[in-house]
Amino acid sequence: MESNTSFPFPEFPANHSHTNVTCSRDNVLKTVLFPVLYSVLFLVGLSLNAVAVWVFFRIPSRSHFIIYLKNIVVADVVMTFTFPFKVLSDSNMASTGLRVFVCRASSVLFYLTMYISILFFGLISIDRCRKTLRPFRGTNAARLARRKLLSGSIWTFLLVLSLPNVILTCKTPTSKYFKCSDLKTPGGLFWHEVVNHVCQVIFWGNLVTVIVCYTLITKELYRSYSRTKTHSAGETMGRMPQQPTKKMNANVFLVLAVFFVCFVPFHFARVPYTMSQTRGVLFNCQLKLFFFQLKESTLFLSSLNALLDPLIYFFLCKSFRTTLFKTLRLPAATCGCLTGRGSDTDTGSTPLRDSSVCS
């Protein structure tokens, strides 16, 4: 029996002896494939984010970009630690007490960190757009303090928003098989619906922000490329700078790529999934199962955020690369080889030059 509202938490069949086996969510995809994938994601993500934390602790917060990246690193680490609980829960290896913990805390933290990352992706997009349109505008201690205050406010707001989901998920399960919604009080059900609406606003607002910012960035890149091409055509001697310029500019679109790969599919898939939950009479069991599997598949893409974010740190932040290779005692030329820039120095003049130095 499905609940009346859609909950972004692991759900368990109300009765394993359901007459229609195809309607059961205990299938190979959920109980075997995804636990394996999340296990791999946990091991790789934990390793990469541990390195990221280790490097960022050695980098001073001297730019808006670095402040935002450090917050994303913290969110990714917290999200990564929720994966083992999801593995045990989905594979039916968890005890009843552990599944209750997943409903009350682990899943709440997972979605908390997801929307924290979404908000900071929006802020990064605004920052990159600002640096593109006004490349010579610097920063100062007051601006950095305001960005730190904004970061703290984001964490505080979402923590306060999520806390009632923990407190109001307090019912004792009456059966071995239960859904997270079965543990919520009436107030908890109402608050969870409120949180769902707030999260939708966060996502769609940041989606619009990202699209607008990168549209402006693309226009500026095109104008810059046109100016560079015109200037180069008039030169009779010297090295042609277009190729390294295009490579440097292309890297900034990693933020856009990670955002669309990780967050957009889940939120689009969540719409029909929610409808299948709230308007069950319009969907048969097979269609409900399909939308459930689609939601779980796109949720895994959202989890990949913890694995893909280190690419942003490496390719967009010269301070991160420099600190990493100095700590590993690798030659500086290695940076250039991996980023495709020959040498990892800031040469040339492009509107996105600052994005490679985390400014």
UniProtKB/TrEMBL annotation:
Membrane topology: Multi-pass membrane protein
Primary localization: membrane
Keywords assigned by UniProt, alphabetized: Cell membrane, G-protein coupled receptor, Glycoprotein, Membrane, Receptor, Transducer, Transmembrane, Transmembrane helix
GO terms for MF: G protein-coupled purinergic nucleotide receptor activity
Residue intervals of the G-protein coupled receptors family 1 profile domain: 48-313
Alphabetized SUPFAM superfamilies for the sequence: Family A G protein-coupled receptor-like
One Pfam entry name: 7tm_1
Any Gene Ontology CC annotation: plasma membrane
InterPro entries with a match to the protein in the record: GPCR_Rhodpsn, GPCR_Rhodpsn_7TM
Transmembrane segments: 36-57, 69-88, 108-128, 149-168, 194-217, 248-268, 297-316
Subcellular location: Cell membrane
Protein name: P2Y purinoceptor 12-like
Organism per entry: Solea senegalensis (Senegalese sole)
